[in-house]
Structures are given as structure tokens and as C-alpha cells.
Amino acid sequence: MEPKLMSDSITELTKKIVNFRDERNWKQFHNPKDLAISVSLEAAELLEVFQWSGADTAVDTEKKIAKVKEELADVLIYSFLMANDLELDIPGIVSAKIDENNRKYPAEKAYGKADKYTAYAEDGEITE
Ligand SMILES: [Mg+2]
Fold this sequence. Notes:
Elements lengths: L5 H18 L8 H16 L14 H24 L4 H15 L2 H4 L18
Bound molecules: magnesium ion.
């Protein structure tokens, strides 16, 4: 079977998510502010996987993997809804952001480093 194009998958997933919402008449609650809050709250729930875990950063137990799947899905669902409602093209905005990150973090300068992009700017270069 041919792999689906990513944009086809995103369109299908968005329809499934929006249908779920519309069947419950929940769009009335989904303004951009509350969707942004929801993305952030679900991201915080994702962080709970690692709370109090000290140096244990791995996701290597069934319990952790299940929680990561659930909360990452929640983050993505609210993100898809926000993109849909604001008529944003997910592949387009992600691709544009990667292009921007390529400019900010040239591979030849940033390879293997975790510095902020300002560390790679030339003197006098606008980095924002
Ligand atoms: Mg959640």
C-alpha cells in the first residue's frame, strides 16, 4: 500500500476531530484564546510524565508510553482545531517554521550544540 501524503493525512485527521466537536456542539467554546490555553494545559499534562522523576528522562515503561500517547494526542488535537479554525495550513506553517529555523540555526554552526539562535548570529545581523 502506498503511504499517504502527509497533507492528506492531516486533512483526514482534521475532519475527524472537527466532526467529533461538531457532533457535540462544542465549537461555541473554542475561541482562539481557549484553544491556546488548552494546548498549553495538555502540554503541562505531558510534562507530568516526567514530574519528580529526577534524572530518569526515559519513556521506557508501558505506563509512561501510554501517558505520552494520550497527552501528545491531546496537544495535537487542540493544535489541529486551532489551525482549522484560523484557516492555517499545517504543512505550510510547519514548513515555513523549519525554513526559519534553518536560517536561525545554520547546521554548520549549530551542529551538536544546544545554544539559542542568538549565539549563531553574525555581528550586526538581525536575528528576530
Ligand atoms: Mg490530557
